[in-house]
C-alpha cells in the first residue's frame, strides 16, 4: 500500500507521457493506415482503424498520378543541399560575430536579430520579386539558397560559441600559427558540433516541409517538390486519397530517419546553453 | 633564441591608459618574471608581446628586430595560458603537434618531436588522452609541452600556476625551473605571486599602475627596493611601514617615530629629503632583545602570537604602529608582555611618505 503511494507520482507521470506519445503519433499511424485502403473504404463509416490490403494498388495509383520518386529526389536535393550550405554559411557568419571586433558589430547583430521578428508571410511578395529579378524563378536554387544565411541560424550558433568556445582557445590557436580559416575549421567547428546538428535538423525539416516558397517559385511539374506535388493531387476530382496518404507517409520517412540520426546531438545542442548558463 | 626589448611601450583601451611607457631589455636566454598586483597590465603586456593585442605606441623588438606589424604566427613565440587553453577535442599528442601540423611538418617528424617533448615532461603515457581526462597538473604540463615542442624563440607564461593547489604549485615551480636549465630559451613569466617570481627568475620586473617600478635580481629587490611599493610587494611576511620624521646630516639619518622613539641609520644617497617619511622594517630584521651598542632599541607590547612551527610571527606595537615581527629563535613570550626589540641600522629602509603597496 505505502509502496503504491510512493510510486504514484511516477506512475501518473509515465501515464501522462504515454498518453502524450499516443496523441503525437496518432496522425502518423492514421496516415499509414489510410495508405493501405481504397478511397471508398476510407469514406466508409466508421472509418477503418486498421491496416488494409490495398497498399500495392495505392502505390501504382500514386506513380500514375505523380512522378513520386522524381519529386522525392527533388525534395531531397533541395533539403540536403540547403542544409549543408546553411550550416556552413551560418557558422561562418556566427564565427565572424564571435571572434572579431569591428565597428558597428553590435548594430549589425541587433538588426539581424530584429529581422527574426518579421513574420515570414510579409516577406513573401518581396521574396518573389527578388527571385524574379534575379532570374531564378522556377529553379531549385531559389528554394534553398536565399535562406542559407539566416538570422536564426547565425544567432543560435553564435550564442552556442559564446558559451562553449573560450577566447583563450582562439588566442592559443593564433599563437600556434593558425590562420583565421584554420581556427574556424580545426578549432571552432569541432567544438560546436551539437549546435550544428541542431541547426541542420531544424533547417532540413523546414526545407522539407516548406510549401509556400515552392508554390510561388516552381511552375514546371517535373521540378515539383513533395509538398507541392501532394497538394496538387488534391485539386483533381475524385482525389485518390489512399494514394495521397501513402505518398504523404512515404514523404515522412526521410524526416524520421534524419531525426533518429541527429536527435542525440540535437538535444545536446538545444539544452547546452541552459545547462551551462 | 632571441632577446626581447620594449621601447616606450604604451597601451590604452579607449581612454584608459593601461601601460604608460615601458622600457625593458630581456637578454637572450634570460628568465624574467613580471610581477604586479592584479589588473596592473601584465596580461596586456604579454598579449602585446605575443602579437594578440596591438600596442598604442612604442616598439616591441624580438631578436633585435621590430615586430610590431608581425602576426603571432610570424613571431615564433609560444605562450602558456592561465586557463591552459588546450583544444578540448584533440588528444594530448594532437594538442602538442598542432603547431607543427600547421607548419606542414612531415608526420614522422611531428611524431618524433612530440614524443621527445612528452618524455621531458613525463607525458608519454597520456599522449592518447583528451584534456578532459587529465588532472590540473597534467593539463599544465601539456600546455607547457605544446609550447616546448615548437622550439620557439621566446616563451611567454601568463600566470601558469595560479589554477593549481598550493602543493602542486610548488612542485610545478620546481619543474619549470629545472626545465629552464635544460632548455635555455628566453622566458617571460607573468605572475602576481612574488614568491614564484623570486624563486624562478634571473631578474624580476615589478609593474604597478602601468609603470615599471624596478628591475633587478631577486636579491637586489629584497635588499634595495627602489620605493615603498616594491619594498611592500617583495618579501613575506610583508615589510612594516612606520610613519616618521627624517632629519639627516652628511652621514647619519635620524628618524623620529610617532611615539617619540628615535632610530638612526647610515645616510644613503637614495634617501628622501628631510621631513615626513616612511620607515620600512622587514619583519625578519626586527630582533627580540636589547641588542648591542650600535643597534636601535625599541620597546612594545605583544598583541598577537602566531606560531608557524619553525618561526613565531608576533604582532608588536612599535612606534605607535602594529608591527609584524618574525622570531626565528622561538623565544618564550606572553600576550600583553612588553618586550625590547632592536634593529640593525643597515637594515632600515627609508622611503618617501605616501606610496605603499
Ligand atoms: N580588451 C580590453 N578592453 C578594455 N580594457 C581592458 C582589456 N583588456 C584589459 N583591460 C584592462 O586593462 C587592465 C589590465 O588588465 P590585465 O592586463 O588583464 O591585468 P593583469 O593581467 O595584470 O591582471 C585592467 O584594468 C583591465 O580592465
Ligand atoms: Mg592577467
TrEMBL record, chain A:
<dbReference type="InterPro" id="IPR035906">
    <property type="entry name" value="MetI-like_sf"/>
</dbReference>
<feature type="transmembrane region" description="Helical">
    <location>
        <begin position="183"/>
        <end position="208"/>
    </location>
</feature>
<feature type="transmembrane region" description="Helical">
    <location>
        <begin position="76"/>
        <end position="100"/>
    </location>
</feature>
<dbReference type="Pfam" id="PF00528">
    <property type="entry name" value="BPD_transp_1"/>
</dbReference>
<comment type="similarity">
    <text>Belongs to the binding-protein-dependent transport system permease family.</text>
</comment>
<feature type="transmembrane region" description="Helical">
    <location>
        <begin position="141"/>
        <end position="162"/>
    </location>
</feature>
<dbReference type="InterPro" id="IPR000515">
    <property type="entry name" value="MetI-like"/>
</dbReference>
<keyword id="KW-0813">Transport</keyword>
<feature type="transmembrane region" description="Helical">
    <location>
        <begin position="241"/>
        <end position="262"/>
    </location>
</feature>
<feature type="transmembrane region" description="Helical">
    <location>
        <begin position="12"/>
        <end position="33"/>
    </location>
</feature>
<feature type="transmembrane region" description="Helical">
    <location>
        <begin position="107"/>
        <end position="129"/>
    </location>
</feature>
<keyword id="KW-0812">Transmembrane</keyword>
<protein>
    <submittedName>
        <fullName>Sugar ABC transporter permease</fullName>
    </submittedName>
</protein>
<keyword id="KW-1133">Transmembrane helix</keyword>
<keyword id="KW-0472">Membrane</keyword>
<feature type="domain" description="ABC transmembrane type-1">
    <location>
        <begin position="72"/>
        <end position="262"/>
    </location>
</feature>
<keyword id="KW-1003">Cell membrane</keyword>
Automatic annotation (TrEMBL), chain B:
<feature type="domain" description="ABC transporter">
    <location>
        <begin position="4"/>
        <end position="234"/>
    </location>
</feature>
<dbReference type="InterPro" id="IPR003593">
    <property type="entry name" value="AAA+_ATPase"/>
</dbReference>
<dbReference type="InterPro" id="IPR015855">
    <property type="entry name" value="ABC_transpr_MalK-like"/>
</dbReference>
<protein>
    <submittedName>
        <fullName>ABC transporter ATP-binding protein</fullName>
    </submittedName>
</protein>
<keyword id="KW-0813">Transport</keyword>
<dbReference type="InterPro" id="IPR017871">
    <property type="entry name" value="ABC_transporter-like_CS"/>
</dbReference>
<dbReference type="InterPro" id="IPR008995">
    <property type="entry name" value="Mo/tungstate-bd_C_term_dom"/>
</dbReference>
<dbReference type="InterPro" id="IPR047641">
    <property type="entry name" value="ABC_transpr_MalK/UgpC-like"/>
</dbReference>
<dbReference type="InterPro" id="IPR013611">
    <property type="entry name" value="Transp-assoc_OB_typ2"/>
</dbReference>
<keyword id="KW-0547">Nucleotide-binding</keyword>
<dbReference type="InterPro" id="IPR027417">
    <property type="entry name" value="P-loop_NTPase"/>
</dbReference>
<dbReference type="InterPro" id="IPR003439">
    <property type="entry name" value="ABC_transporter-like_ATP-bd"/>
</dbReference>
<dbReference type="Pfam" id="PF00005">
    <property type="entry name" value="ABC_tran"/>
</dbReference>
<comment type="similarity">
    <text>Belongs to the ABC transporter superfamily.</text>
</comment>
<dbReference type="InterPro" id="IPR012340">
    <property type="entry name" value="NA-bd_OB-fold"/>
</dbReference>
<dbReference type="GO" id="GO:0005524">
    <property type="term" value="F:ATP binding"/>
</dbReference>
<dbReference type="Pfam" id="PF08402">
    <property type="entry name" value="TOBE_2"/>
</dbReference>
<keyword id="KW-0067">ATP-binding</keyword>
